[in-house]
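Worked example

This section walks through a single chain of length 127. The input is the sequence exactly as stored; nothing has been trimmed or padded.
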Amino acid sequence: MTTESADHTQFAGVVLPGGVANPDALRTDGAAVKFVTDAAAAGTPIAAICHGPWTLIEAGLVAGKTLTSWPSLKTDIRNAGGHWQDEPVVASRERGWTLITSRKPADLDAFNTAFVEAFAEWPRSMA
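Given that input, the structure is written out below as tokens.
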């Protein structure tokens, strides 16, 4: 499906990819930014690894959140009002929605465990 046709109410969670190219493309895609913004407003848990938080920054969702990322995003996150930590995984529940972030591929085991647990805990029925 395209980002234009994606309906955030049909998802139990959102995972933003890492790398550089995919997050860069997502943050310049207005429909993708709106999807993430709408998901956060609805309380849908969001997970992002590596450069994935770029889309969250573009959406204005980082302010007041604690997160981690690839180290080069530290300044971007701080400039957007977020609190950056150098940890394998960070779970942030500030501002009414859960954000799970991780730094890099070496953190995938911790990242996967954390976001699967967050998605499973989300109380909304997916019927």
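What to look for: The longest helix spans residues 108-121.
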